[in-house]
Design goal:
Elements: E1 2-9, E2 17-20, E3 26-30, E4 41-44, E5 48-52, E6 58-65, H1 81-93, H2 97-107, E7 121-126, E8 134-141, E9 146-153, E10 156-165, E11 170-177, E12 186-190, E13 195-201, E14 204-210, E15 223-232
Antiparallel strand pairs: 1-11, 1-15, 2-3, 3-8, 4-5, 5-6, 6-7, 7-12, 8-9, 9-10, 10-11, 13-14, 14-15
Helix pairs in contact: 1-2
Length: about 240
């Protein structure tokens, strides 16, 4: 049975080796899953992105989309700063660095600091019993922009491949097992955003959310992430 999870959105570390494999692909690979965000493997197509943790029992993909920001567009340029910058240049050329620092701290102040980029959410895939995984391996294939996770549980080999497709504009996961009917998992979506709603309809899991308010500016966008399972020779 082969399964594909597709995500639509509106939206290194111990034992690291960087080399070419026998096929000539450039890879970095590990013998253990990521334990922190910095150890997760990155995928992206320029708009959508994911950090893949590669945990056997509970896979986690942290999802991003380029337009998800707090607040709304605004201009925080202060016109009076141009005159201050001229004074700063003069002080710096005169070697009066302390005076320049003091002037900058007092005058170069914006009423707003700008908006913050936000994560879309997390895709969680839970595999019961896979805490017993052995012969673990994961990699980031730089040649074809995929991540792969493989391991064994009770003599069955499980493999996961993830890609962020540019042409289809989705994040896709491909799950397979060496034994028929061995794949059994559940899928969930969640987000750190407080204003969110999670629902399921016609086999599609949906996360709708808004980023937070920033510096008094209410969010101007809302986004939606969708997850769907396509089963081949399974249910």
């Amino acid at each position: 049975m082969k399964l594909v999870v597709k995500i639509f959105a509106l939206l290194l570390l111990s034992q690291l080796v960087n080399a070419q494999d026998k096929k000539g692909d450039y890879k970095i690979w590990y013998k253990q899953p990521a334990t922190t965000w910095n150890e997760a493997l990155p995928l992206g197509n320029g708009r959508l992105a994911a950090m893949v943790f590669g945990k056997p029992a509970v896979e986690q993909l942290q999802l991003n989309e380029e337009t998800i920001w707090t607040g709304k567009p605004h201009n925080n340029v202060v016109n009076e700063h141009s005159d201050v910058i001229k004074q700063l240049r003069k002080l710096l050329f005169e070697g009066k660095y302390a005076e320049a620092q003091a002037l900058s701290g007092a005058k170069i102040v914006a009423p707003q600091n700008g908006m913050s980029y936000q994560p879309a959410g997390d895709l969680w895939v839970q595999f019961p019993g896979h805490e017993r995984a052995t012969n673990y391996y994961r990699d980031l294939n730089i040649s074809n922009a995929t991540t792969t996770v493989s391991y064994e549980v009770d003599g069955v080999k499980f493999t996961r491949t993830a890609i962020t497709s540019l042409t289809d504009n989705i994040i896709a996961l491909h799950f397979k097992a060496s034994k028929p009917k061995a794949l059994n998992f559940s899928v969930a979506l969640n987000s750190v955003q407080k204003d969110k709603k999670i629902s399921i309809e016609n086999g599609v899991l949906a996360l709708k959310a808004k980023p937070g308010t920033a510096e008094g500016l209410a969010p101007a966008i809302q986004f939606e992430a969708l997850a769907k399972v396509n089963a081949k020779e399974g249910k």
